[in-house]
C-alpha cells in the first residue's frame, strides 16, 4: 500500500509499504478516507521523538471505513464509518475507568515512534491497524462532517482539554500563546465556554488576521503584554494557554498571567528541562499545569457542540490534498503558510 513515511530528519516520502494485518482479537483494520497533517507531525519529522525509524509510517489523525475486525471487537462491524483517537487505550484498566485514557499502560500513539509508548504505524496511509478498536475508534454521528471529526481526534480535543484543565469560568480573560491550529481552536473553545476576551499571541501576521476574523484579539508577541495590561487594568489575564511546545513560549506564557493566574501548556514538549521562574510563581501563587487531549473521553461532548453549531473546528483546515502531495503539505505547514491540511489517501 502507499503511505507517507519518515525518510530522514526534516524529510518525508511517499513509499510502498506492506499493508497492516490484524494482530490481536481487539484490532480493527480501517481503510483511511481522510488523514491529517498536524503540528506534532512536524516534531516527528524533525527527529524530536525517539524511536522513529526510517520508513516508519507517520500520522495520528484519521477517519475511515472499517474493513476487518478481530473476534474480540463487539462495538464495531465491517462497513462502519469511524474516527480514531490519536492514541490507543485498553478501555478497562483503572486509568480508563476514570476517564484518564492517556495514562493507560497499553497506550500507543499512532505514527510517533516510541516516545509515548510502543511504536505503532501511522495513519497517513491507505490502511491502518487500530488496536483496542472498541475504545480507540468511534462511529461518526450524523451532523458531524469528516473534517470536523478528524479535528475531534486530536486538535479540538487538545484545545478543549486546555480549557477544561484551566477551569475556565464565564467572564474570565484568556491569552493563547501560539496561533497554529491548536491555538486557534483553543481560542474558539474559550469563546464557546464564555471567556470575556481572548487574546491570541502570534508572530505571524496571517495567523493574527485569522484570529481576529474569528473573534479573538490578535497580538504580536512584542506587544502582547501592553495589550493585556490595558485590557485587564494592569493585572494580567486569568488564564494563559501555551499551544506551541517550546521553553520560550512557556516562559512567555507565565509572564502574561495575573497573580493567582492559571497557565496550561498543551504544546508537545520534547525538551527535558526548563528553568522555572520559581520565586515569582511562588510569590504570585501561579498554577502551572499540562494537558493532553483525550478524544476518547471528550468525543461525545465535542460531537454535541459541533452538531449544535456552537463550534466549527473546520475553519482551521486550509488545504486539502491527495497522498502524493503530502510532502508539500509538510513544507507549507512548517513554513506557516497553512494552519492545517487533510489528505485523501484514496487518490
Q: Predict the CATH topology of the largest domain.
A: Quinone Oxidoreductase, Chain A, domain 1
Largest sheet: 7 strands, mixed
Number of domains: 2
CATH architecture of the largest domain: Alpha-Beta Complex
Q: What's the total count of β strands?
A: 15
Low-confidence stretches: none
Give the helix proportion (percent range).
25-40%
Strand content: 15-25%
Mean pLDDT: 96
**CATH homologous superfamily descriptor of the largest domain:** Medium-chain alcohol dehydrogenases, catalytic domain
| Cα Rg | 20 Å
Give the class-level CATH name of the largest domain: Alpha Beta
Structural class comes to alpha/beta
Q: List the secondary-structure elements in sequence, H or E.
A: EEEHEEHEHEHHEHEHEHEHEHEHEHE
Shape by Cα distribution: globular
Oligomer: single chain
Q: Between the first and last Cα atoms, what is the distance in angstroms?
A: 12 Å
Number of helices: 12
Q: How would you explain this protein's 3D organization?
A:
The protein has 347 residues and is of the alpha/beta class. Strands 3, 4, 5, 6, 7, 14 and 15 form a 7-stranded mixed β-sheet that branches. A 6-stranded parallel β-sheet has the order 10-9-8-11-12-13, sandwiched between helices. The model has no long low-confidence stretch (mean pLDDT 96). It is globular, with a radius of gyration of 20 Å. α5 packs across α6 (181-192) and α5 crosses α11. It is built from 12 helices and 15 strands. It has 2 domains: 2-154 and 294-344, Medium-chain alcohol dehydrogenases, catalytic domain (Quinone Oxidoreductase, Chain A, domain 1, Alpha-Beta Complex); 158-290, 3-Layer(aba) Sandwich (Rossmann fold), CATH 3.40.50.720.
Amino acid at each position: 500500500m502507499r503511505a507517507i513515511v519518515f525518510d530522514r530528519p526534516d524529510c518525508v516520502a511517499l513509499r510502498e509499504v506492506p499493508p497492516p494485518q490484524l494482530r490481536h482479537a481487539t484490532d480493527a483494520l480501517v481503510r483511511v478516507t481522510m488523514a491529517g497533517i498536524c503540528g506534532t507531525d512536524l516534531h516527528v519529522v524533525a527527529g524530536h521523538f525517539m524511536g522513529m525509524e526510517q520508513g516508519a509510517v507517520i500520522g495520528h489523525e484519521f477517519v475511515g471505513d472499517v474493513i476487518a475486525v478481530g473476534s474480540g471487537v463487539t462495538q464495531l462491524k465491517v462497513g462502519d464509518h469511524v474516527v480514531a483517537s490519536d492514541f490507543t487505550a485498553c478501555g478497562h484498566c483503572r486509568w480508563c475507568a476514570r476517564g484518564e485514557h492517556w495514562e493507560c499502560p497499553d497506550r500507543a500513539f499512532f505514527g510517533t515512534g516510541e516516545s509515548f509508548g510502543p511504536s505503532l504505524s501511522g495513519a497517513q496511509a491507505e490502511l491502518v491497524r487500530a488496536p483496542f478498536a472498541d475504545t480507540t475508534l468511534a462511529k461518526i454521528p450524523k451532523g458531524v462532517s469528516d473534517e470536523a471529526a478528524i479535528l475531534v481526534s486530536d486538535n479540538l480535543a487538545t484545545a478543549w482539554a486546555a480549557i477544561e484543565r484551566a477551569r475556565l469560568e464565564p467572564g474570565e480573560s484568556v491569552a493563547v500563546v501560539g496561533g497554529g491550529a491548536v491555538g486557534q481552536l483553543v481560542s474558539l473553545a474559550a469563546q464557546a465556554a464564555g471567556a470575556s476576551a481572548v487574546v491570541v499571541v502570534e508572530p505571524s501576521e496571517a495567523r493574527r488576521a485569522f484570529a481576529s476574523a474569528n473573534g479573538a484579539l490578535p497580538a504580536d508577541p512584542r506587544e502582547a503584554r501592553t495589550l493585556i495590561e490595558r485590557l485587564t487594568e494592569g493585572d494580567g489575564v486569568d488564564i494563559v494557554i501555551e499551544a506551541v511546545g517550546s521553553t520560550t513560549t512557556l516562559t512567555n506564557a507565565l509572564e502574561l498571567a495575573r497573580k493567582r493566574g492559571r497557565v496550561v501548556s498543551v504544546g508537545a514538549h520534547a525538551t527535558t528541562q526548563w528553568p522555572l521562574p520559581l520565586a515569582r510563581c511562588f510569590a504570585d501563587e501561579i498554577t502551572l499545569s499540562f494537558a493532553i487531549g483525550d478524544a476518547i473521553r471528550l468525543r461525545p461532548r465535542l460531537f454535541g457542540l459541533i452538531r449544535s453549531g456552537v463550534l466549527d473546528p473546520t475553519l482551521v483546515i486550509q488545504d486539502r490534498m491527495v497522498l502524493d502531495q503530502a510532502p508539500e503539505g509538510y513544507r507549507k505547514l512548517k513554513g506557516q503558510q497553512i494552519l492545517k491540511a487533510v489528505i485523501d489517501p484514496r487518490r
